[in-house]
Write the structure tokens for this entry.
Amino acid sequence: MTAITITQRFFRVSGVVTFLTRRLVSSLPVLFAITLVSFLMIRAIPGGPFVAAGERASTPELIAALEHHYGLNRPMLLNLPNGDDWQLFRWVKEEKSERVEILILDPSFADTFAALTSDEVRAQLEGQFDDTLQQIAFYSEQGIQRNEMPGLLDDLATIRDALTDTNLAAQLDSAISVYEGVDLTGERVRPALRITPYQVLYSDLFQSQFGNYFFNLLRLNFGPSLGSTNRGRPISDIISEKLPISISLGVMAVMTALLVGVPLGVLAAVNHNGPIDQAAMFFAVLGRAVPNIILGPVLIIVFAVKLKLFPVINPYVWLAGPQGGPGEYLSTAFLPVVTLGMGMSASIARLTRASLLQVLNEDYIRTARAKGLRQRNVIYGHALRNSLLPIATILGPLLAAVLTGTFVVELVFAIPGLGDAFVTSVTTRDYNLLVGVTVLYSVFLVGANALVDVVYLWLDPRIRF
């Protein structure tokens, strides 16, 4: 590889990185506008999360208490000065809970470690190691992770050198030797929930419903669920539980649509106006004409109930995933994947046919045929790659839509994905989940469109960023 080639590739890659960075930065105002508009429009829905349709009527006192607890009694956009205690900026102490694996400590080490939190030791070291002693007290109460032990041993060694109590210093030295130089990957651990306090800079101006939600969103915190089904549960937990199910369904459907739609469109274009072309276009029209809400139940009745070729609806298979049984998982996923992929494959087939027919009339295709190249080489070596640009264009929003959940298919096949959770959140007026899924879809859409732009570069080397 010559130096010129390396230089060209370097600038090509750096151009792509610069373009993607600029693209993502320019999308931030769009994402903010989507968040704001979605937030306001969803809260304009009649009713509320605590008086949702279908629930038994709650007392006004209970509704007011719940609104106060979840912050729905605050101003919508900005909290303007309304009293003497109003401050533009203030530090607020918050707590963050996380599930970790903590070491099961040696008894001698645990006893010595607990002794360091006593008032006598604090009196000896007062003013010298306040931060270290505070950290030790946290570890004594909340537990120690493997990666935290080396730094803790260094702190304990520093404290040992400063102790005036020789007995405690010897005891501490003995405790340090238990874990010093030991490979901690082999030590036993247990799961635990640690609560970590931290300081957050707050502004009373933004102590409003949207202000709190937006700044929590910047920390990837979608807030608690407000609906009756999962009230109080973090939205992040709901999304992390249901999003992989929707992603797996969406990826399989898109792959099926591409594997069926592109070859079908190529066959239709190569056999233009022939029987194969007419049959392929009949399938494309049929795939677009029959909605998923009709196709799904028909496939269930014919292939699952009557012919018994596929298992009946079983949501637990989706929760277990492929690791629960690949054969059962794939057989359960077949019908929803076909239902979701049929419409997409029909659109891709029609678009591939139209684009390929246009490319086949270009001058360079006639030149390739005049050189005596075989039809297969002309189609797959020269024409098809250039005809895929329109398909890549629609693939971005299509991919974002199916990855974040397909409402109809998930409801028909009882798939516990994000689309099913979104529909449920509409009926229960779960504001935070509705906005969270909308923002997530917008992020996926921006990312998918950026990925499509990179695919353009691979399909057409003439494109420069």
About this structure: Residues 3-43 form the longest helix (41 residues). The first strand starts at residue 90 and ends at 103.
